Amino acid sequence: MDTSTEPCPGQLRQHSYAVVRGLFDAATTERLREICERVLEQRRRAPRCDNPPVGPQANYMRHLNDPEYHRDHPDDLAFLLNAMGSPQVVESLSAALDEEFLFALSSLYFNPTGESQDGFWHKDKIGAEADVSRRPETGAGLQMQIALVPTDDLEVVPGSHLRDYSPEEHAICVADDGIHNRSNDMPGAVRLHQEPGDAVLFTQLCIHRGRYHTDKLRRSLMISVKKRAAAEFTMRQRGLNYASDQPWFLLPQYFNGVSEDARAFFQEFVAFYAPHWRARLTEVLKYSSLVQRLVEAGEPYPFFGE
Ligand SMILES: O=C(O)CCC(=O)C(=O)O
Ligand SMILES: [Fe+2]
Prior knowledge:
binds 2-oxoglutaric acid, 7 helices, six-stranded antiparallel sheet, three-stranded antiparallel sheet
C-alpha cells in the first residue's frame, strides 16, 4: 500500500489500526527472530501449556517470556523483555491508546506445518471489558504485531471498530453459524504488508484476520497490552486467566539484564498482578502439602478415594 497514507499510532482511534515502519532495526529484529525460532522449536517438542494445542495446524503460541523457554539462554529472555518493553514500543502504544495500560502477554504467530487455511474474520470477543475505559471505542487494549520476516498475512477492515457489522460484514462474519467467515471477499479489507522490524497495531474491536499458509513463512511477534481499567474489571469479575497468569515474573532473577525502561514498563504489570499470583501460589501450597500428608498417612489416593 501507499505508505504515505497509512495511519500513525495517534490515528489508530479513527482507523482501527496503525503502522510503524522500522520499529526495530535489522540487528534487533534478526536476534528476535533467532530467539523466537528457538522457542518455537522447543514448544513443538515440549509445550509449556496446551492453550493453544500444538500440532500441524497450530499457528500461534503464547508466553514466549516463560523462563522455561530460556533456561539455557538467560540472555535471550533479557533481550526479549528489553525489546518488548523498549521506549519505542511503549510510546507507540501510548500514542495509539491515549489511556493508561499494562503489559498483557506475548505471542508468536507462525505458519502451520499441516494444511493451509485462510483465517476467519472476527472482532475479538471481549465482552463488557470494552466498555469500562476512558475511550471505549478502542476496547480493552491493543495488539502490536512485529514482523520478524516479511509478511502479508494480517488483514483488517479500517473503521470497523466504530460500528456494528454492516449487512455484508454480518453475512461473512456471523450468518449461517459462521460458515462463510473465511471468505476472501470482505468489503473494504486492507492487507498489511510488513518488512522485518515493521509493527502493525490494531484494536481488538475491528474486523480482522490472519492467514495461515504452509508455504508462506510467517514469524510475527505480538505484544498485547490491556487498559488498566479493563484489567481491574476482569480481575474483579473473573480473577486470573490464561493471559494474566504469569507468576514467573515473581522470580528474583527474572529481570536480570533488563534495562530500566523495560523494567519500569513491566513493573506496573507485576505490581498489579503479583498479589493474585501469590494468592494462587499459596493455594497450591495448601493443597500440595495436604496431599503429601494424606499419602504419608496411608490414606487412599486422595483424588479417587471415597
Ligand atoms: O494475526 C493473526 O493471525 C490473528 C490475530 C488475532 O486474531 C488477534 O490477535 O486477535
Ligand atoms: Fe483476533
